[in-house]
């Protein structure tokens, strides 16, 4: 893997990732962008114990631009984009309208937050990055080559390491939102990386369950769930040499797949070369099934759950959670009163039936 | 309030609520509906400690029917609906496609769930009801009369009492989803009541925070947050004699209002006559502001948080949470990778700015 870091004209970092050395990439951003005054603030909800991110500069970000105006395509004469080069393989850059921004180190010193009575707030830390998978505007992740998926994985691992080393970063989250139905504002195939200045509410909850299970049984909950799913079999989607994918017994979404390496590791960087190699096949296989579920490709969220940077690493198991918000070919699963108001999910699709359907869609 | 309970032809319960006695309502359902084989199952997610509801018979429920086919309008010649009467004020009936159903008492005996290793499942209990606010298909809650809002409130209180008394019911939740953007399948103005056979994940989390705060301070978190918001004032939307509405300091949604009675009570039934009377004004005021926020009425979720039926009642504070998923006149707030994947919310709107805007929209 060859890595070429450059600076965009407003000071943001961009990195080209190429399979071979020597493919020299454009270093200069031909645009003159004014610096964006990015500030974000964190506030803690005292009832949910959850940090909420406020980033008011984001209201003006571009929203479903026409293909000719795509800011993630390579630059060409008359259309300079976020990527200065005329072509690229994989490129990662800082979002111009990030939800999370890095604050000066002095502001971060008080990590516990400024308390004004019950109102806890603190300056933000962290970063939001965009990962372009291909220069081809019309491709999708499911259509990438095996080598390209491997290159994306190496880019995610490289970015995770750099972001995790930054002061104040507590968790690095690599994910892809795909489809207008879930609010994707840029149709160009891309993922995102959020470096959070806190352990996310979901991961906090999972770690609490894992620790409580360990205290009770001296066993690891991730290991036991994976073993139980493999033994039961009724919800398995695929069982490869190094990876297992299944619909969880209590799936929250109509079609939801959890994909684990058979050997528990805390993060992507800890995967062996063999595990990485097979992962590319597995990802293409699973996303291919999602694209065949309905007449049109399913909108999805693909979420890499990695261990937090500083704690819970010994017990956490890296895994991918993949789900679609579509429940039939023409109906979406909305998060309405029960889900959004009470976090009580109701699903129309029994997990065993979802798994059966996903098994049938193998190629 | 006058109450007329009847049975629909498939055995479901329907209740007419009228302001005056004597307005005799149609007792017979002229249709011949086959009984729906409603079964639902609960499964517990071992990582999130949350029950998920599966109700597979729901896939066929009607989805955005044409106005002439509306099942919530009064019956007329040639169009028999869910409501046999030719007119009504408020009517509540069991959903024909409920997410939650009552299981036989014998099945409920084992409330702790059948464990198959890590896979905990149990038969469901509970109920899903529909609350029609008006026979006028084109009205909205914000357009109801004060008397009608009061009648809706009395209906919710009556239904909450009946549902809370059923075996296996742990929490009764009254809410309204409004707007196609959040998945409302019936545009006729209506709310819903879910009687859950568990304390919802959100309420569990809130109770844990409230109990932990009490252990630390011997004080009530709801009381202290309400007092702090009233003292701060920058996020207040309205302060009436008996009710206070504010945008919470760490709001999760672009426009979110929490509305509390100034006297802490566990549920709607505990409100005094004066508090009930003023509540109707307050609800109409707040929903009126929501309807003026954007050129078109904002889609919203209005959620009544009542104390669980059997525990946490001493510390819980009844309140209404009202929020819209719209962030500007033409943009929605989607729950994508960060929110759906990690429960980490990012918002573009600072709560103080949202409150200022909502104060300006007073009539």
Give the key terms.
homodimer, 363 residues, alpha+beta, HIT family, subunit A, 2 domains, 11-stranded antiparallel beta sheet, 4-stranded antiparallel beta sheet, 7 helices, 25% helix
Q: What is the CATH topology of the largest domain in chain A?
A: HIT family, subunit A
User: How many beta-strand elements of chain A?
Assistant: 18
Mean pLDDT of chain A: 91
Strand arrangement across the biggest beta sheet of chain A: 1-2-5-8-10-9-14-15-13-12-11
Query: How many separate helices of chain A?
Result: 7
Query: What's the assembly state of these chains?
Result: homodimer
Largest sheet of chain A: 11 strands, antiparallel
Overall 3D form of chain A: globular
**Helicity range of chain A:** 10-25%
Q: Return the string of H and E elements of chain A.
A: EEEEEHEEEHEEHHEEEHEEEEHEH
Radius of gyration of chain A: 21 Å
Largest interface (CB within 8 Å) is between: A-B, 80 and 80 residues
Number of domains of chain A: 2
* Alpha-beta content class of chain A: alpha+beta
Q: Write out the CATH superfamily name of the largest domain in chain A.
A: HIT-like
What is the secondary structure topology, with strand pairs?
The structure is a homodimer of 363-residue chains.
Chain A: E1 2-7, E2 13-18, E3 41-45, E4 50-54, E5 90-94, H1 105-108, E6 114-116, E7 119-123, E8 127-132, H2 146-164, E9 171-178, E10 190-196, H3 201-217, H4 221-232, E11 236-239, E12 243-246, E13 255-261, H5 273-293, E14 300-305, E15 319-324, E16 326-328, E17 331-332, H6 337-342, E18 346-347, H7 351-360
Antiparallel strand pairs in A: 1-2, 2-5, 3-4, 3-7, 5-8, 6-7, 8-10, 9-10, 9-14, 11-12, 12-13, 13-15, 14-15, 16-17
Helix pairs in contact in A: 2-5
